[in-house]
Each structure stands twice: as C-alpha cells, then as structure tokens.
Amino acid sequence: MALRNMPLRRAQRFLENVKEQKEIVPFLRFNGGVGRKAQCKQWNTTQGRWPKKSAEFLLDLLKNAESNAEYKGLDVDHLVVDHIVVQRAAKMRRRTYRAHGRINPYMSSPCHIEVILTEKEDVVAKPTDDIPRTKKESKRKQRRQLARGDY
C-alpha cells in the first residue's frame, strides 16, 4: 500500500529511509498490537513500524525490476510502481525436538512478491475551455416551462 503509485526512485529512497528509521511504514490493515508512532501522522494514521528485513528484500526486488526494465528499453527515470502485492507461498516444514521424546513442527512462512513497473510520462495540465458551460436542466423542468410559456 505504501509503495503503490510511487515513482521508482522515490520508492527506493523510502525503503532506504525505513531501514534507517527516518520514515515509517503505516500498518493500515493488519495492525493488531502495533504500537503508535508520531511519524505516522504524514500517512493520516497512528500505527506503523520500520520493517528492516522486509525493506531490504523489497529494495533488492526493485533493483532487479529496474534492471529488467532497462534491459527492455524503458526509461528508468519515468518508472512508477503500478502494482505490488505479497501473497502466501507453501510453508516449509522442519522439526524441533522437545523434552520426553516429542517433536514439534518448525514451519517457515515464505511469500511470493509481485511488482509491476510501468513507464508514466509527465502529467500535462488539462486545457481550460473558453466557452462557459451552461447548467443542464431536467426534462421535467423543460416540459413545465414549455407548458407555461416561460421560454
């Protein structure tokens, strides 16, 4: 959520700042037990964290996506993170040995991360019309005016 629609350079700078705890990642959805931080005010929320390990993985992923885009001939300075999603992958199973000959599962929770970068051009301002727009009237009001002769 935090990286979506962000320019690529800004997203990389944001993740670097997260690693150094200069900027915070807002926790909007899965925020049970997440502490309140003052840095979250810029995101209009109260809860957030600085997920250092996740930021490092995402930085590597964005670097890889940038090099792929450069290889495909896209302009790297105009790239925007159009789509980013994290989904659960199959769990990896290991075991931990406990007292009295028991064994408990020791599962890892990997994930799949999708990132789509698109090339966006600079936004051009919409030209203003010199013709003033007239207010549309409803059909019922037009019929009433015709019946009364107020035209």
Features:
151 residues, two-stranded antiparallel sheet, two-stranded antiparallel ribbon, Ribosomal Protein L22, Chain A, 23% strand, single chain, alpha+beta, 3 helices, ribosomal protein, Ribosomal_uL22_sf, 6 strands, elongated, Ribosomal_uL22
What is the secondary structure topology, with strand pairs?
Layout: H1 8-19, E1 25-26, E2 48-49, H2 52-71, E3 79-88, E4 92-97, E5 103-108, E6 111-119, H3 139-148
Antiparallel strand pairs: 1-2, 3-6, 4-5
Helix pairs in contact: 1-2
Summarize the structure in short.
The protein is of the alpha+beta class. 28% of the residues lie in helices and 23% in strands.
Report the C-alpha radius of gyration, rounded: 26 Å
- CATH architectural group: Alpha-Beta Complex
Largest sheet data: 2 strands, antiparallel
Low-confidence stretches: none
Spatial order of strands in the largest sheet: 1-2
Q: What count of domains describes the coordinates?
A: 1
Principal-axes shape call: elongated
CATH class: Alpha Beta
Helix amount, in percent?
25-40%
Count up the helices.
3
Our estimate of the beta-strand percent is: 15-25%
Average pLDDT figure: 92
What is the name of the CATH topology?
Answer: Ribosomal Protein L22, Chain A
Say which CATH homologous superfamily is assigned: Ribosomal protein L22/L17
Q: What pattern of helices and strands is seen along the backbone? A: HEEHEEEEH
Family: Belongs to the universal ribosomal protein uL22 family.
Biased composition (Basic residues): 136-151
GO molecular function: structural constituent of ribosome
Region (Disordered): 126-151
